[in-house]
Each structure stands twice: as structure tokens, then as C-alpha cells.
């Protein structure tokens, strides 16, 4: 059974999520969400930007898993910043997903087109809409995505309700330690997107090959377990049934401290899309 962690408002969130980024093929998206839920996932992550909220909602319904058992996240599209836009598009997301509440809703990016100069005021006004939707019961938890230290320093003093989550790109070689520390100090849980990015660079590393043999796990499973052992909430996606199943089989082992340290010291060679 998948473990959960409690957010600052006592809402429980499963420690592994099924992500749907770039998944806009109707059959693949619907089947992927449905299969993930049938295999045991209870945490589904989407976003207005992904353009698939209706498909995600359909997959949830077809799974037969009761809505109250699913932790469902969406995020604000960059073009929908501002108080009035946010109020309107939260309702639109609810309608597309076919639900009367979201378990978590995030501001997707802190600095967006058209608000390069006034992003500080923009984030504060946008957050006010999330607070009101939270108080109205439309959102069970609210938070941020891709907010770094300077963005947190601006927003946190202006919150009536503190963010409960910060979703960041996190994996070996990209630890964002200062942002993670500040987020946690403010009471936020940390979600990790793109946790499997290092796989191509790790595939021929002898130490990691030996690690995979030691645990009898794939590199993907090692990376997801790394995230869980670091107290992140990793979000992973696949449309392939066997990969969806494999990615969920990470609750029967833990990484030794030496292996965690090895991953912590990994040097990332890829792009940093932030």
C-alpha cells in the first residue's frame, strides 16, 4: 500500500504521483490514468497548461476508483495569472475534470509572459484567488510550482494562508538545496517533477549498474526511491502499462545511505529547464 505524508493543513498526500505532462493523445492519456489507478496509484497530477484535464477526468471515471480515494492536482496556466483570471479558471478546471473540488492546486510558474516586470504583485494577487478558493472548499490544499528563493521571499510575507506544497524539478545533479530548505522551513511539502531525467546518463555507469543488481531494481525505480528517501514526492509519467506498473514497485526497499550519497554527488550533464 502506498504511503502518504501529511501536509501542513493535515491533508494526506500519497508519496508517489502519476504525472500527465505532454500526454494529450486521447486514448493514451485516458488509458494511462485509468491503468495507473487500477495498479494502485492514488495521486494524479495534471495542469491547465497540459491541455488534458478532460482526458484525465475521463480516465479517473473509467477506473472505477472512488473520487474520494484519489488525490488530484492541477496547476494554473501562465496566461491565467491575476485574481479574476484565476478565480474563473479554477472553476473551468473543476468542470473539465468533472469534480467539485481539487485536492491540490498550484501556481505553475512564478514569472510569466506579460508580468516580467510586475511578477511580485502578480503572484500576490494570484495567490489571493487561491486562498479564497481554498476557503470556499473548492481546493483542499494550495501551493506553488517552480518558485525559487526570491519568489518565496516575495510571496510568503503576503500570504494569509501559507502554501502547502512547492513542486520543483529535482533529481540527482539538480538538488535546488536552498529552495528546498526554505520551502520546508515555511512548512511546505516538496514534490519532484522529472525525477527520471538522469537515466540516459546513468545507464552505463558501473556503480549504478551494480546498485541496480544489488537491489534487483531498474534505474528508474532507484531514482524514484531516491526521491522518496529524500522526503520528496516524485511525479513520474508513462503511457506504457508495464512501465506504469514498474514505477509503482518502489515501496519494498530503501536505499542505503552510501547509495543516497552517491546520487547526491551526481553531476548533471543535461539541460536545466527551470
From TrEMBL:
Transmembrane spans: none
Pfam families under this entry?
Answer: Aldo_ket_red (PF00248)
Binding of substrate, residues: 108
What residues make up the catalytic site?
50 (proton donor)
Taxonomic lineage: Bacteria, Bacillati, Bacillota, Bacilli, Lactobacillales
Q: GO terms for molecular function, please?
A: oxidoreductase activity, acting on the CH-OH group of donors, NAD or NADP as acceptor
**Keywords assigned:** NADP, Oxidoreductase
Site description Lowers pKa of active site Tyr, residues in chain: 75
| PROSITE patterns on file | ALDOKETO_REDUCTASE_1
InterPro entries recorded: AKR, Aldo/ket_reductase_CS, NAD(P)_OxRdtase_dom_sf, NADP_OxRdtase_dom
Positions of the NADP-dependent oxidoreductase domain: 16-196, 205-264
UniProt record similarity statement = Belongs to the aldo/keto reductase family.
Question: What's this protein's name?
Answer: Aldo/keto reductase
* Signal sequence coordinates: none
Per the record, the domain of life is Bacteria
Amino acid at each position: 500500500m502506498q504511503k502518504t505524508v501529511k501536509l501542513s493543513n493535515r491533508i494526506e498526500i500519497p508519496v508517489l504521483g502519476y504525472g500527465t505532462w505532454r500526454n494529450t493523445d486521447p486514448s493514451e492519456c485516458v488509458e494511462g490514468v485509468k491503468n495507473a489507478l487500477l495498479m494502485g496509484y492514488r495521486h494524479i497530477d495534471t495542469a491547465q497548461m497540459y491541455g488534458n484535464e478532460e482526458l484525465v477526468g475521463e480516465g479517473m471515471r473509467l477506473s472505477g476508483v472512488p473520487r474520494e480515494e484519489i488525490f488530484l492536482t492541477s496547476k494554473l496556466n501562465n496566461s491565467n495569472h491575476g485574481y479574476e483570471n484565476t478565480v474563473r479558471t479554477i472553476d473551468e478546471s473543476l468542470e473539465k475534470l468533472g469534480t467539485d473540488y481539487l485536492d491540490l492546486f498550484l501556481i505553475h510558474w512564478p514569472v510569466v509572459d506579460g508580468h516580467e516586470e510586475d511578477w511580485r504583485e502578480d503572484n500576490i494577487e494570484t495567490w489571493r484567488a487561491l486562498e479564497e478558493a481554498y476557503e470556499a472548499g473548492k481546493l483542499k490544499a494550495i501551493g506553488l510550482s517552480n518558485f525559487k528563493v526570491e519568489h518565496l521571499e516575495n510571496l510568503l510575507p503576503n500570504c494569509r494562508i501559507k502554501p502547502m506544497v512547492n513542486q520543483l524539478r529535482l533529481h540527482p545533479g539538480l538538488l535546488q538545496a536552498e529552495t528546498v530548505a526554505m520551502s520546508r522551513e515555511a512548512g511546505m511539502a516538496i514534490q519532484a517533477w522529472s525525477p527520471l531525467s538522469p537515466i540516459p546518463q546513468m545507464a552505463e555507469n558501473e556503480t549504478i549498474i551494480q546498485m541496480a543488481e544489488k537491489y534487483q531494481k531498474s534505474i528508474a525505480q532507484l531514482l524514484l526511491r531516491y526521491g522518496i528517501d529524500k522526503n520528496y514526492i516524485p511525479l513520474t509519467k508513462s503511457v506504457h502499462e508495464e512501465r506504469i506498473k514498474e514505477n509503482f514497485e518502489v515501496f519494498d526497499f530503501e536505499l542505503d545511505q552510501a547509495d543516497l550519497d552517491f546520487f547526491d554527488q551526481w553531476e548533471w550533464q543535461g539541460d536545466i529547464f527551470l
